[in-house]
Amino acid sequence: MNYGDQLRDCVSVLQLDIVEGAAMAPHDIQVQLYRDHVDFKVLDQLDQHFKQQTPIPEHAADSFTAFILSKPLRMDSTLVLHAMQCLNEQGEPNGELWVKFKSTRSLTNLDKDVTELGLHALQLRMLKDQPLPACEAKVAPSGPEWLRTGIDLGVGLNAGSWQLPVLETPLDVPERFAGHLYLKLLTVDHPVWHG
Quick count: other Cβ atoms within 10 Å of Cβ 30? Predict the structure, then answer.
């Protein structure tokens, strides 16, 4: 199994952890994996296209642009999620994984919000139980803000807590935007693990 498949499997398991109690299995989840470096100029360009209502520029299927435009959704019995393995300028993984899940509220009758998710447990599973500080939600007010908000590690493994950017959308908005849960997590590729 290659690393991309491992990331997809891990994202599926994390989604099942988030919606504990939902009648779902890993084979019900499809994960689209994107690999690109984060370029905030792309966000500015897309903002202009949306404001001017002009066509979206051409982009690769696994690009940062494609990830920005993606939304998690349920199609029949399949849940489609999106995850981006962020790359540094040299094209190597920088240790951040940005994931667009469906929220607990959208898939179950449970009314758990993002602060009750157990971010520390999710991050632990992502890192295969590496020791780490407490993890707290750094709640973003919108999708663009979530994209622009960085993971705050303080001083790394010795920090009081890590701040992970999170966005949960309500259910009473247009269906394309409803019931999403966006998280930024660390992978074992992050420099914090390698000194």
Answer: 13
